[in-house]
């Protein structure tokens, strides 16, 4: 459940970054050559590990362009996760969710679909019951004729 909280915080950060981007540029550039933790206290900032720069997150792009900072060196929200790890993690989680849904759908459809062997067994059971009833009716008729004599 920790990853859910983490993904929620990243989404919250994205929403907050969309607001007030102009003021963030000057605030982020003031934190150059500081620490990653200090830079990321402002949710509108992106930390680049290669040159220890605190820059404004490019809100027009979903991911920062490689000319700004490579994905493996970009930090945003928390210092211990880079964008590559974030993309891989979200892709794996999304894939697992999609596969789980498909598996559940297949299992549910398979349970609802009547099996051929079941219908054959049912047909056979119905035929046998009809034959038993017919024999029983014959016996009853025989018994009545015997008692009538």
Automatic annotation (TrEMBL):
Positions of the UniProt region annotated as Disordered: 113-149
One of the record's GO cellular component terms: nucleus
Keywords on record: Membrane, Signal, Transmembrane, Transmembrane helix
Main location (coarse class): membrane
First and last residue of the signal peptide: 1-23
GO biological process per UniProt: protein import into nucleus
Transmembrane segments: 85-109
Bilayer topology: Single-pass type I membrane protein
InterPro entries, sorted: PTTG1IP
Record's compositionally biased regions (Basic and acidic residues): 115-149
Source taxon at top rank: Eukaryota
Subcellular location: Membrane
Name of protein: Pituitary tumor-transforming gene 1 protein-interacting protein
Native organism taxonomy: Eukaryota, Metazoa, Chordata, Craniata, Vertebrata
């Amino acid at each position: 459940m920790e990853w859910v909280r983490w993904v929620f915080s990243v989404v919250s950060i994205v929403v907050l970054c969309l607001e007030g981007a102009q003021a963030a540029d000057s605030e982020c550039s003031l934190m150059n050559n500081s620490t990653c933790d200090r830079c990321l206290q402002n949710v509108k900032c992106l930390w680049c590990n290669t040159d220890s720069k605190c820059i404004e997150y490019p809100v027009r792009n979903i991911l920062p362009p490689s000319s700004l900072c490579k994905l493996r060196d970009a930090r945003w929200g928390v210092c211990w996760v880079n964008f590559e790890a974030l993309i891989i993690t979200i892709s794996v989680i999304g894939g697992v969710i999609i596969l789980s849904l498909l598996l559940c759908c297949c299992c549910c459809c398979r349970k609802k679909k009547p099996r051929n062997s079941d219908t054959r067994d049912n047909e056979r059971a119905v035929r046998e019951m009809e034959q038993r009833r017919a024999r029983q009716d014959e016996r009853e008729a025989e018994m009545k004729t015997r008692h009538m004599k």
